[in-house]
Amino acid sequence: MAKYFDVHPENPQRRTISNVADSIRSGALVAYPTDSCYALGCQLGNRDGLSRIRSIRNLDDRHHFTLVCQDFAQLGQFVHVDNDVFRAIKAATPGSYTFILPATKEVPRQLLHPKKKTVGVRIPDHVVAQALLADLGEPLLSSTLLLPDEEEPLTQGWEIKERLDHAVDAVVDSGDCGTEPTTVIDFSSGEAEVVRRGAGDTARFE
């Protein structure tokens, strides 16, 4: 059964956040809120967590996983960013965007797109997600909590607990965070390509 953590959306309880972070360090797969719907997350090197995300979402090896980062300094350790791309991404973060970029050697091979050697990165504008990332001190390997054959992600913590009780180890509930996933911008060629229109405004990248 999954542990259930009820977290205040504006003033997350420090002890509760620390408990969630400790669970992640111990290998847990968690469902947690972001600024654009709930996500599944685990520690970067957690192979079991990665395979469980693939299983829950029925993903193939071409799926771009996302490293959810606390800030730009952390993001820069895992992807190559030139000056023009840096400015474009910096202006849009934190926010509801995922950026696809060439990965550095810090990213485990199994997370990379098999042909492009790219990975998704994002910096969420969400108090609870930021508190969790600050406690962890490292990115969360993540994917949108969208179940196979369903058009919208799950938005209620209690429903996630009910439906994924034996598939995840913990659910972090801080209330509804919407159903619209991030806008995905592919910068792997050096130019912005809108891959998915979502919660983030695409106008600045078109």
Automatic annotation (TrEMBL):
Its EC number is 2.7.7.87. Residues 14-200 form the YrdC-like domain. Transmembrane segments: none annotated. InterPro entries: DHBP_synth_RibB-like_a/b_dom, Sua5-like_dom, SUA5_domain. Keywords: Nucleotidyltransferase, Transferase. One of its GO terms (molecular function) is L-threonylcarbamoyladenylate synthase. PANTHER family: DHBP SYNTHASE RIBB-LIKE ALPHA/BETA DOMAIN-CONTAINING PROTEIN (PTHR42828), THREONYLCARBAMOYL-AMP SYNTHASE (PTHR42828:SF3). NCBIfam families: L-threonylcarbamoyladenylate synthase. This is L-threonylcarbamoyladenylate synthase. It comes from Streptomyces flavidovirens.
